[in-house]
Amino acid sequence: MTKAEKAATELGYHCDPYNRAEFTSNDVREAAIEGYSQAEKDLELTWEDIRELHILFETVDVEIELGQSNMKKETLGYYEEVLRRFISQRNT
Question: Between the CA of residue 72 and those of 2, 17, 77, 78, 87, what are the distances in Å?
């Protein structure tokens, strides 16, 4: 069972052969599975994303070395800054 199928099942979407509604619970379950699966695909990291993360880490490292940033490498703020930049670029 995929994560999407498990999530739909946990939400109570099961096939009901006696349901005469326009959208059966099975229709809703299938739509939930499809939507969840698409979201997983949309959020997957690609090799291009990894390359971009590498570039962002290098950029932040150079800014630190040049004194353009007062953060320290490998701290929470460091990783948050790289993540903020990555998300910003990914959304544009």
Answer: 40, 60, 8, 7, 21
Average pLDDT over residues 44-60: 95
Q: Is 81:71 a contact under the CB 8 Å cutoff?
A: yes
Confidence of residue 60 (pLDDT cuts 50, 70, 90): very high
In angstroms, the CA 91 to CA 13 distance is: 32
Q: How many domains does the structure of the chain reveal? A: 2
Question: Model's pTM, two decimal places?
Answer: 0.60
Q: Are residues 38 and 57 in the same domain?
A: no
Q: How confident is the model at residue 8 (pLDDT cuts 50, 70, 90)?
A: low
With a cut of 80, say whether residue 28 has pLDDT above it. no
Please, how many CA atoms are within 13 Å of residue 65, restricted to the half-sphere of its CB? 6
Q: Cα–Cα distances in Å, from 24 out to 6, 15, 19, 41, 86? A: 18, 7, 6, 26, 41
